[in-house]
Amino acid sequence: MAQKSQLTDLPTPRLVSAIRQATGHTQESLARDLGVSFATLNAWERGRSNPRTSHRMVLERMGKKLGVSMGLKVLVVDDNQPSARLLKAMLVASCNEATVWVESNGTDALLRCGAVRPDVMFLDILMPGLDGFETAQRVVKMQGLDNVRVVFVTASMDEATLDRARESSAAAVLQKPFTTEDLERVLGEIGATMLLSA
User: Fold this and answer.
1) Distance (Å, rounded) from C-alpha 35 to C-alpha 22?
2) How confident is the model at residue 8 (pLDDT cuts 50, 70, 90)?
3) How many Å apart are CA 173 and CA 186, to the nearest integer?
4) Measured distance CA(176)–CA(155) in Å, rounded
5) Topology (CATH) of 72-195
6) pTM
7) Where are the domains of the chain?
């Protein structure tokens, strides 16, 4: 069964660009169809302003009708917030079409997984409460999440922990600190290369 995109989570600049790409509209012609000025639509697409709720709803309906997707949906789960923010920034910089959510624990991650059905989950191993291993085991048992790719992320140097991660069903293991090149290599290995920046 195909997964439905939640266009409400898609930033307006990406939604406008995707609609224009799918329809062949110029900014002027799409602005005309929406009944707004060229300057207004240009500001939406450049992220300088946001549309009124009514215009946003029209854009979402257009996107849904055209089959616009959210691109790569990524969930970052890490109880270390600076680390999570850094990974999110690296993902946004590395991927043309990524929507990234961040959760700080396994329980909230499971709720988010059910809501957005991510393509890739970067999962810290050592977290209080549900650790990364337990969270990953629960994710694969959730209906509709059998295609999510789990990438374990850890600062641990413990060989037993690293071996367990490597021997799990995870698509990859990233040891902190890692570089943008390491991240892009992992994305390429798990099949997200079509979304990497040129």
Assistant:
1) 19
2) low
3) 8
4) 5
5) Rossmann fold (3.40.50)
6) 0.65
7) 10-66, 72-195
Q: At what angle do helices 53-66 and 27-34 cross, to 10 degrees?
A: 120
CA distance 165 to 171: 10
CATH number among 1.10.238.10, 2.60.120.40, 1.10.260.40, 3.10.290.10, domain 10-66: 1.10.260.40
**Structure confidence by residue, pLDDT tens digits, 115-160:** 878 889 999 999 999 999 999 999 988 887 878 899 999 988 888 8
Query: Do 128 and 136 meet the contact criterion of CB atoms below 8 Å apart?
Result: no
Q: What span, in angstroms and rounded, lies between the C-alpha atoms of 23 and 100?
A: 26
Name the token pair of 154.
């850890």
Torsion angles phi and psi, residue 2, rounded to 5: -70, 145
First and final C-alpha spacing in the chain: 31
